[in-house]
Amino acid sequence: MAAQGRSPSTRVKAERRNALLADYRPLAGAFDEFMATDGSIRPHWEPFLTEWSALSHDELGQRFGLADRHVRDTGVSYRVHGDLDERDPLAGERAWPLNHVPLILTGAEWQTIAAGVAQRAQLLASVLDDVYGPGESIAKGLLPAAVVAGSPDYLRPLHGTANGGSLQLYAADLGRGPDGRWWVLGDRTQAPSGAGYALENRLALTRAFPDLFRTMNIERLAAFFQGFRAGLVASSRRIEPRICLLTPGPLNESYFEQAYLARYLGFLLVEGGDLLMRDGRVHVRTIAGLKRADVIWRRIDGDFADPLELNAASALGVAGLVHAVRRGNVHIANGLGSGAVEARALMSFLPVLARQLLGEELILPNVATWWCGQPRERDIVLDRLDEMTIAPAFRASGEGLDSGTVLAGELPPDQRDALRARIEARGQDYVGQEVVRLSTMPVFQNGRLQPRPVTLRVFAAATPEGWRVMPGGFCRISDHPDARAVTMRSGVRSSDVWVTSDAPVEPVTLLPSADRITIRRVIGVLPSRAADNLFWLGRYLERTEATLRAVRALLGRLIDADDATPGRADTLRRLANLLVAWGSAPGGKGQKPSAQALAALHDANQYGSALASVREARRTASVIRERLSVDAWRLFGDLQRQLTLDTRQMRSEGEAYEIADTALKTLAAFSGLSQENMVRGAGWRFLDIGRRIERGIATCRFARHFAESDAPSDSLDVLLDLTDSQITYRSRYLLGAALQPVLDLVMLDPYNPRSVAFQIERLDAEIATLPALSEDGMLEAPRRLALKLAAECRTAEAGRLDKTSILLFEQLLMGVSSAVADRYFLQNDEPEGSRLTGIA
Fold it and tell me: What Pfam families would the database entry show (predicted)?
């Protein structure tokens, strides 16, 4: 199938096929997923290669562009550990490195992989039940005690706790050896990542090759997530539990995935500070007080989950969480101590444990592993040191030789000798493993397919019907042709995994059947942290708009050649001074207004510039990404790109004016989205409250700068421009701009959506709908201040407005902002909501 026009001829297809395969040579000694040893293409890859051969180079580029745009528009990103900037959570984000070629596996082969992964998940779940329970495997000598007790991920306070080491989501890292067999390279039981990225890889490549995806009968992923969610629901004591995804926060390497999965599965995304212990139960701090959390899917390390009983240095967890687990009042997935079975030291004992605990042989073998805590195994490793990879037996710790897997044979002599000495002194801290040569798969590079090593991460979820394995997964592809497994620790590409079926695959949805749906019109509680960020998102966006309007007004008057307008010089001075006062532009003698306007647009070092405000808005939005649509996130990216200055170019006044105008249109698009697409729940209300407060404050400041008693008509015209009220004013008054009518329109007119009066009325209405914590009939501080502000505004007269009275409105608006923050946002460890007696 060609993307455009007629299907190419057989000759053209053959030429394109030959061009794609011109440089493809399987690596020596490695299994190739795509090409057999005789140079023929494996049959299950033929439909894919045929499709590509029907597309020209330009058509392939268009398909790749569709996938890449999906990644860019949805903000799919990741971080490299250590590449962090606490001041800007987005600064270290990297675009997701999507490979446009999927890994394709047959359904028959996948059945073996799925059976092996499900078996391994059950085995590790049984081991966890034993080591946190009766400890029979240790008592019978099947497992050395040091393999368990020596792991920093074995949490002794959880011993004897039913939920201590429970396993809900498991991931196995697989590699295919030269003989074609799949081997387990590692187990992920602590907080497995990658399932959300696997889903995004699927969406991106499906967008690029939708027809191919259907004709090849690729297995869907939704049923896996449906089963995982059902398993979490079944683990709770309540019929409709509140399920939270506990994230380390926006600086975490996979925060995008966590926010994405929370939105996709309908879970509440929370950080440790959002949770609080009361009466042996875990609660979420919300704008309506404390609400019970029934299930917590954690994405933080187990020992960081409770600073009271586990790691006292942790700022990510919840004090007292272990106590709630002991009492059975909250289910943690995965259990806090589940990381103990990730240890490489355990791998050499799993074949025996499988026979004893399951009565079965392992379907998927481990990579050969020797734990150096045993004398015989340590001697084997030391004798064959140059042939092995050496890795920490437990969680990687320290630096240099103790920071991860190393190829001993490639170390300099002094480092190899140091490693040998460490193994001899503390063998229990190390394992030796066979060097595995990974299989290879195609990547598209320089117009051709080329082989690169690949590992595959496969996920299994505990469901009410047993273990369900995701039909696909998350594959990582090395950028280097070295096919040894050790090189994959920093793989730089990822792709989708397609499992083919012989029959058409039925679509699967996460929606439950109609007879099981409980109708509701609200989407649940709003955490205080989310309300805080939505509120400030609204303020930053309005702050950006106010700056852009001031810049546009200044540039418009600089461009206008009519310098004879009365008061023009004074107006330019006032506009420039306003930008300086807002921290948008540099002040001081000799500053040209045009340069100040340019700085107010593009200079991120000016804290009040439009670019700085947009970055703050995008940073704030990143913390609540699960609550924003793809379209909204795309607009943030568009705004930042529009305002980012290429330092190699200097903008003319006309170009800068166009940039400000375009950015204002983008902001208007976001306003349209929020007004027309967002459900009028508590989240939207806090976004709107933030916008109303900031717009009201900005309008007051505009009025104080440009509507003094002796202000020239040009300054009043600027005020009308800044408040987008020119058309309304001209339709009401035939005369030019006059002080009292202008002030009435921008300050006191409740029918003008840009006036201070309009913002105050909307504020009062929104605050009136927010939940009250007390039931004593008394007005809470935010509503009380909003009513006072509304009364001041309704009784004011334009003829009596001056700088002092306008400043009073501004201060009252800031007072409402502080009252909203004090009442609804996280301020300290004892929120007002904790005083409630009726905790839900």
Answer: Alpha-E, CP_ATPgrasp_2
Tens-place pLDDT, residues 287-328: 988 999 999 999 999 999 999 999 999 999 999 999 999 999
Spacing of C-alpha 636 from chain mean position: 15
Coil vs helix vs strand at 460: strand
- Structural domain harbouring 392: 368-434
- Are 670 and 686 part of one and the same domain? no
CA distance 168 to 799: 69
The pLDDT confidence band at residue 737, using thresholds 50, 70 and 90, is confident
Is the same domain home to 809 and 691?
yes
pLDDT > 70 in the chain, percent: 90
Instruction: Look at the chain and report how many structural domains it folds into.
Output: 3
14 located within any domain = no
Whole-angstrom distance, CA of residue 90 vs CA of residue 618? 8
- Choosing from 434, 453, 484, the residue where a domain stops is 434
- Which domain-ending residue is among 388, 415, 434? 434
492 within a domain of the structure (yes/no):
no
Q: What is the pLDDT of residues 55-91, one digit of tens each?
A: 888 899 999 999 988 888 888 877 766 555 555 555 5
Whether 621 and 537 have beta carbons less than 8 Å apart is answered as: yes
218-242 confidence digits (pLDDT tens):
999 999 999 999 999 999 988 889 9
Residue 839 is which amino acid?
Answer: I
Q: Are residues 584 and 612 in the same domain?
A: yes
| Packed helices 593-602 and 528-559: angle between N→C axes, nearest 10 degrees | 150
